[in-house]
Amino acid sequence: MLRSDRDEEIRIEETKPKTEESTNLTPEEVEAIKKAVEESDARYRQTYRRNNRYKTGSNKVGKLPKALALVYLIALAAFAGNVTTLDVLPVKHLSLVIAGVTAVSALVLTGMCKGNMKKWVRIIAGFLCVVLVVAYSLGSFYIFKTQNFLESTTEESEKKVESLAYEPFNVMITGIDVSGTIDEQGRSDVNMLVTVNPNTSQVLMTSIPRDYLIYMPDKDYEMDKLTHTGFYGVNTTMQAEEELLSTSINYYVKVNFTTVVKFIDAIGGVDVYSEYTFSPRYTPYTFYEGMNHLNGDQALAFARDRKSFTEGDNQRIKNQQAVVEAVIKKATSSTAMLLKYNDIVSSLKDYFKMSISQAEIKALIKMQISDNPKWEIYKYSLTGVGDMLPTYTSPSENLYVMTQNKKSVSKARELISGMISGGKLKKGENGEPALEASDSTGE
């Protein structure tokens, strides 16, 4: 009991009438004494309540904490619904997220809404509530943007595999030599077939020179050079490559100059290895032998140049592969995709198209998060000999084409077919990829 409280009790006791003197008091004096006692008692109770509230906190919960709690629950419900809809978290990760959010929510809501909590506890709980509401809102916004991006850039493939996360598949990358939106048609200057085996965590990039002689099944097998198929659409390019490599292409990814520049800038640039020191014509850039950190414009110049090399298009293909490899490594082995996510999604919309569906993309992301595989990347390039021939696109004049090297085409078919059948790659004696010998015992 506080000292002031005790003094008040003593004073009250002193004001009480003595028994033997009580018969000598007038009624007015008795009433005055009763009134004084009641007033003293009221002051004592008021002092006690004030001191008790200072020590333990008020039992009342204000309107603001209640409103914050309601806003928190709404933001949490929206975030949980969006996460469920996006469906990219594996079960074990989702369980951890749910458990963590539940625990934090219980602490925050209890701290704000329980009446006997101390003032400093409520302040901290309220601060956490505001922070989490902002986090849930941003999360919901990013998920919404992801859904919108996937809807605008993906479509169903007629040749899709049963499960991208567990079954080998082929993806054709076609790079059109124009800037602007992805609907702009042009020559297909970058032509690469990417074979992926999720079971072995291996990727094979098979590059085809832009001037490679091909036959177009949808044009009665007329002869042309591969780059011209871009004028007729992605399906013409895909069928020509299927015929060349004797394989089925399950998906395609279509990009152009603008895609490359915007994407690489969005992820903060890439580190690319150059075999030579060279300066592409009509650019202010010089690339040095060894590792080079490139922004979007630099990476495009690095991948396009062929005039600086005696091997011409063959070296350009190697440089294109180096850029693609650098992008894959940056995207799968760093936090770039997470930290730059908003910039990436915003930069690629209208400049990127793929025939991989939303569900398949989500399955791939879920597999990457769950297993976190370390991908092995192998590269192979088709070779040929230059010649001057008329083509389907220009039948009245001779144009430069690269005739097929049957040995390199046969090797590419073998590697791709082996990976699709479940085979595993290794580095051969000459540095090129080779198939590992199969176990004849079946063990």
Could you give a short description of this structure?
With 443 residues, this protein is an alpha+beta fold. The chain has helices at residues 3-15, 27-56, 63-86, 91-113, 119-153, 234-245, 257-266, 296-304, 313-332, 336-339, 341-348, 358-371, 406-420, and strands at residues 169-176, 188-197, 202-207, 213-216, 222-225, 251-256, 270-274, 290-294, 353-354, 376-381, 384-389, 399-404, 425-427, 433-435.
Structural class: alpha+beta
- Number of helices, where a helix is a run of at least 4 consecutive DSSP H or I residues: 13
CA-based gyration radius: 37 Å
- How many structural domains in the coordinates? 3
Q: What is the average of the pLDDT values?
A: 83
Helix content: 40-55%
Give the biggest beta sheet. Answer: 6 strands, mixed
**Percent of residues in beta strands?**
15-25%
Please state the second-level CATH architecture of the largest domain: 3-Layer(aba) Sandwich
What's the CATH class of the largest domain, please? Alpha Beta
Topology order in helix (H) and strand (E) letters: HHHHHEEEEEHEHEEHHHHEHEEEHEE
The strand order across the widest sheet is 9-6-1-2-3-10
The CATH homologous superfamily of the largest domain corresponds to LCP protein
Poorly predicted ranges: none
Through-space gap between termini? 84 Å
Shape: elongated
